[in-house]
């Protein structure tokens, strides 16, 4: 998970600080030393770390303590504010031209995930009411065009390709004419990459830029390459001029130093981050939310946004109506499980809940979802509607059909029965209010008394 090491270190430091009613200059020096080591271990550029620590020290020593905060909390606030600033300060999205089509060029090295990112970005843009066209201008990498076509087909987004020529300027111009004729208001150009930056690569991209005059040039960078990602970003910005950065594989980078360095080095914003392999795993980069996640303060807004995307209002109304009349059966359980899976891995969602990242040994097996899905799918329609008929022989059959054990089937059914009881309690608004009050007060035991 992104920033895992840095997050753990900084959260440990902030926990110590919050409890302090008074902080001496020597306390502050010790804290800043720990913050410095945490950032350097996360592969953040040394000069950036040095400047970051200097700013925090200056503000912490020269600032009056707010009445609502203890001195320790004040230092935590300063660290958070500076972290937000380091990550870019404010959100930065694509600027669409009022005279379409908006042309977006995706550039980067081979292996950074450009082609998949092009599809993810097209998918996100379409959700905003746009009509994107993907353009295959990577004419060198074997099967690059085919890969983009497969991505386009999966998303039902058109792809323009011309395999009779290797002149990318010609292909891009033809694609623009195609977009105008088909009323596509956004053109996303997937360009060629190399294993390293060279003159030929840059010249081709410069020619493309000069001929089609893109409104946005977005650099796709693999976050797992650490400081190399920062060097690549600097080269592309110096030689080509970029408008923003998309960081890929952020879900796999435990250090995350690239994200903390790349904005400061290039002075170009991180616009999007890819957080998984699925074609919907692209998020707008919010510096404030990312800073909150790193410091263990949660990211409730992102959870809400994911839920809004994954859960249909109509389906929620149907479920509510059904709950009042018939109750919560295994078909409903399966439907809700699939909706939750759309939001991403459960472990990543839990870490967005304030305080959850500080829970020790928080381990969630996302494969458990797949096992449960297999168990329910191995049942007959009647068994899903009437789980009480599941006797021993039926459970043996379900275990064999789902590739699980009878013990796992029994464990799931016990869990389902608890969920059913909870759903019955939720039929009445008073009980829902009581539950919410208990959760907000942290009195989890009170829920069982409802």
Give structural notes.
It is built from 20 helices and 8 strands. Residues 429-450 have low confidence and may be disordered. Strand 5 (216-222), helix 9 and strand 6 (244-248) form a beta-alpha-beta unit. The protein has an 8-stranded mixed beta sheet with strand order 3-2-4-1-5-6-7-8, sandwiched between helices. The chain is flat, with a radius of gyration of 26 Å. Helix 9 runs parallel beside helix 10. The chain folds into 3 domains: 4-87, SRP54, nucleotide-binding domain (Four Helix Bundle (Hemerythrin (Met), subunit A)); 102-295, Rossmann fold, CATH 3.40.50; 303-449, 434 Repressor (Amino-terminal Domain), CATH 1.10.260.30. Helices cover 56% and strands 9% of the residues. It has 450 residues and is of the alpha/beta class.
Q: Look at the structure and name the CATH superfamily of the largest domain.
A: P-loop containing nucleotide triphosphate hydrolases
Q: Tell me, what's the shape? A: flat
Number of domains: 3
* Helix fraction by DSSP (H/I, runs of at least 4): 55-70%
Do you know the CATH architecture of the largest domain?
A: 3-Layer(aba) Sandwich
Give Rg in angstroms.
26 Å
Q: Mean of the pLDDT scores?
A: 78
Low-confidence stretches: 429-450
CATH topology-level fold name of the largest domain:
Rossmann fold
Distance N terminus to C terminus?
37 Å
Largest sheet: 8 strands, mixed
């Amino acid at each position: 998970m992104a920033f895992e090491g840095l997050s753990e270190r900084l959260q440990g430091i902030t926990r110590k600080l919050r409890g302090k009613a008074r902080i001496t200059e020597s306390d502050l020096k010790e804290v800043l030393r720990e913050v410095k080591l945490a950032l350097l271990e996360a592969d953040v550029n040394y000069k950036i770390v040095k400047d970051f620590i200097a700013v925090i020290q200056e503000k912490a020593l020269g600032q009056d303590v707010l009445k609502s905060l203890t001195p320790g909390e004040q230092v935590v606030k300063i660290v958070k504010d500076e972290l937000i600033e380091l990550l870019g300060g404010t959100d930065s999205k694509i600027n669409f031209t009022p005279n379409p089509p908006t042309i977006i060029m995706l550039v980067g090295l081979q292996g950074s995930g450009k082609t998949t990112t092009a599809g993810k970005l097209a998918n996100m843009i379409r959700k905003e009411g746009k009509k994107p066209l993907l353009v295959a201008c990577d004419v060198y990498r074997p099967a690059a065009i085919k890969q983009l076509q497969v991505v386009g087909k999966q998303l039902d987004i058109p792809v323009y390709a011309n395999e009779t020529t290797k002149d990318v300027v010609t292909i891009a111009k033809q694609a623009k004419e195609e977009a105008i004729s088909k009323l596509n208001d956004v053109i996303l150009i997937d360009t060629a990459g190399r294993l390293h930056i060279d003159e030929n690569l840059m010249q081709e991209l410069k020619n493309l830029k000069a001929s089609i005059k893109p409104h946005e040039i977005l650099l796709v960078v693999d976050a797992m390459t650490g400081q190399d990602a920062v060097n690549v970003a600097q080269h592309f910005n110096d030689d080509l001029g970029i408008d923003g950065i998309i960081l890929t594989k952020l879900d796999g980078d435990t250090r995350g130093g690239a994200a903390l360095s790349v904005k400061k080095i290039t002075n170009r914003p991180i616009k999007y981050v890819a957080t998984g392999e699925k074609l919907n795993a692209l998020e707008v980069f919010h510096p404030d939310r990312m800073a909150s996640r790193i410091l263990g303060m949660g990211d409730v807004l992102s959870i809400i946004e994911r839920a809004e995307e994954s859960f249909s209002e109509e389906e929620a109304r149907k479920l509510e109506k059904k709950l009042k009349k018939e109750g919560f059966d295994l078909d409903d359980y399966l439907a809700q499980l699939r909706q939750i899976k759309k939001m991403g891995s459960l472990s990543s969602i839990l870490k967005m809940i304030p305080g959850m990242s500080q829970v020790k040994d928080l381990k969630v097996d996302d494969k458990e979802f797949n096992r449960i899905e297999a168990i329910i799918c191995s049942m007959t329609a009647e068994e899903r509607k009437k789980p009480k008929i599941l006797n021993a022989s039926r459970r043996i059959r379900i275990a064999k059909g789902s590739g699980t054990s009878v013990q796992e089937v029994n464990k799931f059914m016990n869990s389902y029965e608890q969920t059913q009881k909870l759903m019955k309690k939720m039929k009445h608004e008073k009980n829902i209010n009581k539950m919410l009050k208990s959760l907000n007060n942290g009195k989890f035991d009170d829920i069982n008394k409802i």
